[in-house]
Write a structure and sequence with these properties.
The strands form four sheets. Strands 2-1-7-8-9 form a five-stranded parallel sheet. The longest helix is centred in the middle third of the chain and has 17 residues, at about 230-245. It is built from 16 helices and 13 strands. By secondary structure, the chain is of the alpha/beta class. The protein binds iron/sulfur cluster. Iron/sulfur cluster binds near residues 338, 340 and 351.
């Protein structure tokens, strides 16, 4: 298949692995964080880490939108369905995220909540159109990639004059999460995660471009290479990061130039700015409350804001005591460091959010890497 097979070619991968081996400095170690859950999935699925020299370590970052969704937000969605009687629509992965009282959206559905999986925000608008006697709420999560379609849905609902559609907005912003990792007091205190550079997200960068990462490169002296999702994309990005480190450079480079440019999708950015504004504070799972790290709906679209339409206060809820998702999302621990990994906590019975989506560090390691642990 054109444009896919080329980026999974085993011979090219072997050549790239050899080139990386030649270029690494054996006297030092390299720690790179792949921010994006899609990269985590690709690295685990294609065994990219196994092709790297021992002194090049990949660290999973917090770039899985399901993983960073805090329990308190899932609780809000459940309360809407069970207490307010709304039809709650969301993407499939959200349904299994563990919430309070042993619940998840899926379990709340089993208790009688009208909770539906949709493939797009537009499906939720259509549902509202077809069911004028029901309040339909779209539980909107995700990074900059999924935000423009939510903006379109709100504008569409406004154009249609829908009185029964609203959005529980939980969209978050990538650059804020990267800043938090670099400045996180926990990471500083534990001092266990040296980071030499980042693989920048693919889909997110198609929207925001590569420009927002220039700040990190300059301010924190950390190289960033934007990469596509295929294994050869990731390997090429690792090679580019190694070169930057070896040469003492800290720049933003773009391996994914077939889809990303410096400015991103200006039309999508404009649409998002029209409908959303920054939230002062937002809690992330595993990263605590981060200032200016998420979006809320602008007052001119307030009638489509579920937080304004329904009595929804936010109550933060701590993770399961033994769950290490917080440390994993910050790159401080690996999935196999968690006592619950693969025993109590599995993709069929996730205890923490990192085990839910295939992009989560624990789920990716459980699916593709756990037998390697036994062999070691
Ligand atoms: S294995 Fe489960 S409980 Fe442990 S950190 Fe991962 S998601 Fe959390």
């Amino acid at each position: 298949m054109k444009y896919i097979d080329e980026f999974r070619d085993g011979d090219v991968a072997a050549g790239l692995a050899e080139a990386i081996r030649r270029e690494v400095n054996p006297a030092r170690s390299y720690h790179f964080m792949e921010f994006c859950g899609g990269h985590t999935h690709a690295i685990s699925r294609y065994g990219v880490s196994d092709l790297l020299p021992d002194n090049v370590r990949m660290i999973h970052g917090p770039g899985c939108p399901v993983c960073v969704l805090p329990i308190g937000r899932v609780d809000q969605a459940i309360r809407l369905a069970l207490d307010e009687g709304v039809t709650l629509c969301t993407y499939g992965d959200c349904l299994r995220v563990p919430a309070s009282d042993g619940l998840s959206l899926l379990k709340a559905k089993a208790q009688g909540g009208d909770i539906r999986m949709v493939y797009s925000s537009a499906d939720a608008v259509t549902l509202a159109q077809k069911n004028p006697d029901k309040q339909v709420v779209f539980f909107a999560i995700g990074f900059e990639t999924t935000t423009p379609p939510t903006a379109v849905a709100i504008k569409q609902a406004a154009a249609l004059g829908l009185k029964n559609f609203s959005v529980l907005c939980c969209h978050v912003l990538t650059p804020s999460a990267i800043s938090s990792i670099l400045e996180s007091p926990e990471v500083r205190q534990w001092g266990t995660v040296p980071l030499d550079g980042f693989i920048g997200p693919a889909h997110v960068s198609t929207i925001i471009g590569s420009r927002p990462y220039e700040f990190f490169a300059e301010e924190y002296r950390k190289p960033v290479v934007i990469a596509g999702f295929e294994p050869l994309d990731v390997m090429q990005a690792i090679r580019m990061l190694i070169r930057q480190v070896n040469e003492g450079r800290a720049e933003v480079e773009n391996e994914f130039s077939r889809a990303v440019d410096r400015n991103g999708n200006l039309k999508a950015q404009q649409l998002v700015a029209e409908v959303f504004e920054m939230r002062k504070n937002f809690e992330w799972r595993g990263l605590n409350v981060l200032p200016y790290s998420a979006l809320r709906i602008r007052s001119q679209f307030a009638e489509f804001d579920a937080e304004k339409r329904f009595p929804l206060d936010y109550r933060p809820v701590p993770d399961h005591k033994a769950c290490e998702c917080g440390a994993i999302l910050r790159g401080v621990k690996k999935p196999q460091d968690c006592k619950l990994f693969g025993t109590v906590c599995t993709p069929e019975n996730p205890i923490g959010s990192c085990m839910v989506s295939s992009e989560g560090g624990c789920a990716a390691h459980y699916t593709y890497g756990r037998y390697k642990d036994l062999a070691q």
